[in-house]
Amino acid sequence: MLTRSSEFWLVSGTVDETPSPRFLGTHLHPDNIPSSFYAKKTKMLVIFRNPKDTLVSFYHFSNNNPVLPVQSWEYFYSHFLSGDVPWGSYFDHALAWEKRIDDPNVMIVTYEELKQDLSEGVRQISSFFGFSLTEAQVHQIAEGSTFTAMKESAANSHGTMGNVIFRKGEVGDWRNHFTPEQSQEMDEAFNKHLAGTRLGAKLNYQLHCQ
User: Fold this and answer.
1) Does residue 56 lie in a domain region?
2) Coil, strand or helix: which one is 103?
3) Is this model's pTM higher than 0.70 or not?
4) Looking at the 3D structure of the chain, how many domains does it have?
5) Residue 29 is among the residues annotated as catalytic for this protein
6) pLDDT mean by block of 10 residues, the chain; 210 residues
7) Domain CATH for 164
8) Catalytic residue among 27, 93, 139, 177
9) By C-alpha distance, which of 48, 89, 30, 43 is closest to 200?
């Protein structure tokens, strides 16, 4: 999640010294975001990815991270599905944001939407944050925000973690990891938790995960 805010509660010094408006990223559950963010009507951009590709990405991030233990696919899959991973259950997180989907200060977009039409995503996001961009600026931002562009500059932006954070960036890589049984189990979990919700519809699960 990205927020535009006049305050940041986790880091003192650097952020406090940065002039407003300021941007920060977090994986916090919305219920754990300080109430002052909601009271001050902080703009929050929430980015979701379909759960199957999220699991695959999280698995590789964890196993490629030098400070974390290596885990088997089966072990990580089962723990992800039960919510026994850092930041908790994907579905609990999604349902918490579903409750805030009508908040005018919350914008939810999907990774898949941005992959399909990044320029349009830039237009919508910039409008949400109150920025007026020319088409040339939209093109420039979109060009620099593709997965390929970010991966190529990862060493400068993220140092040695660049190759850990930026792997493939593809939609549908889950097909190279899930067994048919695991795919069906995730389908059932999605239907149980998110079927019939607006966020569930926005994730376009049938297109991207079946």
Assistant:
1) yes
2) coil
3) yes
4) 1
5) no
6) 40 65 87 92 96 96 87 97 95 97 97 97 97 96 88 74 76 97 98 98 97
7) 3.40.50.300
8) 27
9) 48
